[in-house]
Amino acid sequence: MAKEFNYTICPVANASYIAANHGFLKERLERKGYTPIKLQTLEKEHWKEHFTYENDHLFREGGNTPPLWAKSRGAEPVLIGINLIPGQQAILVRKDSDIQGINDLKGRKIGIPDRINVTIDHQKTATIEGFENALKSAGLNKEDVEWVYIQDETPDYPSGAPNWTFKTGLDFEALDEGKVDAVFIKLSASERVLESGKYRKIFNIITDQNSVDPVNNEWPNVLTVSRKFAEENPDAVVEYLKAAVEAARWAKEHKDEAEELLAEQTHGTVEQYRRAYPADFYTKLEPNFSEEGLKSLQTRAQFLYDHGFTDSVVDVYSWADKSFLERALKELEEEGA
Q: Is the distance from CB of 171 to CB of 112 less than 8 angstroms?
């Protein structure tokens, strides 16, 4: 009998989505006697495991906030891969605003979504860090602006509707009504919003970073697996990584097809995706343990602790388990893949 495991993937560009939706994952794992099951095909009561890791047989690739949060609270996800895929992180103002750049935010009100009923508010963490990084690029700090927290009482899983992407919400309503002067939004969602014609982009940290690291929820992107599953099924972890690496290498040779898949994954059109991600995105999908990736993740871990989102600072360097990826790469080389 095939052994089942679950996988879940954030709506950000990554190799797992290509592996799962182009057949690499199913083919490799079923060959070894495993059946991959997408977490979101289970009953809704299980969907929160995307954030909490209360699942002993779960792979997850995507934003770093939930695994860092869960790790700090005693969960045991194993870090088996990192990558750095730059995606748009934008500061928007109303089209009729007199604000032209980050310098003009001094003394202004910035909107921070505050979803008070969610398990871990990754959007709030991303917005705060996005604004802090943008302000830093102009020589400003958080004391130079007025932080306006906009409470959203939308229920958490399983009663709430799935929210896998960075959606516009009450912060944009506050912007429309003039209660705040600027908001933060990222990835393909930023381009969907700009197409309305109601807003202007005054900053994109990927292109305007001015020596400020673009560390945030998706920089870096992380791949994890439940420790119990990894310890009991190391071969499956290796095969999952081989599927992810194969998918990333396939993308290098099939840019247009990869772009279509990842536009779908990020809930945008291909054109929106192209404007939100760099032209060479397809060369950056392979999981790795680069020093830059580890350093960025450690910076993110410190930020989450300093701002009260996690219970401790996760030591990323000791958390990273490179053995599975090293074995996967060696076996792929032996296979001639």
A: yes
